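Lab notebook, bench 4. Still working through the backlog of constructs that have no structural model yet. Next entry is a single chain of 143 residues. Request: give me the structure tokens for it.
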Amino acid sequence: MVVSTPLGVKIIASTRYVNCEVMIREMKISIDLIKLGEMTFDAILGMDWLSACGAYIDCNRKRIIFRMEGAPEFIFEGVKVSHDIPYISALKATKLMSHGCQGFLTTVLDTTRTDIKIETIPVVNEFPDVFPEDLLACLQIEM
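Model written out:
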């Protein structure tokens, strides 16, 4: 299977995992999965699969209502985003940059926080011996 990404890159998907059990909150569902290389998504649920699960997408309320045969109705609600922070999607940013707009990638670090500990940083907390002392000092992390 050849899949086109929003950036115009084509990915060849050749690995399929049949009859996998997926948990969506407390609901277990069986699904066939196709590996799409190293993507940043956990999973992309296609329209065919959603319709087979009797799913209705309520865009206004950011939720999906599952009405599967023989199972009680189940509602999955998406993450609520605060509209105080202006943002644009990666797709829109890519389109703007293709039309000559400049894009900047930045990282923000709150240097006033002193309560940061290595145990609270995902992934980093699994490898405390990998990160150099000067990096940890820069982040004000207590070992």
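Notes after review: The chain has a mean pLDDT of 76. Residues 2-77 form one domain. Flag for follow-up if needed.
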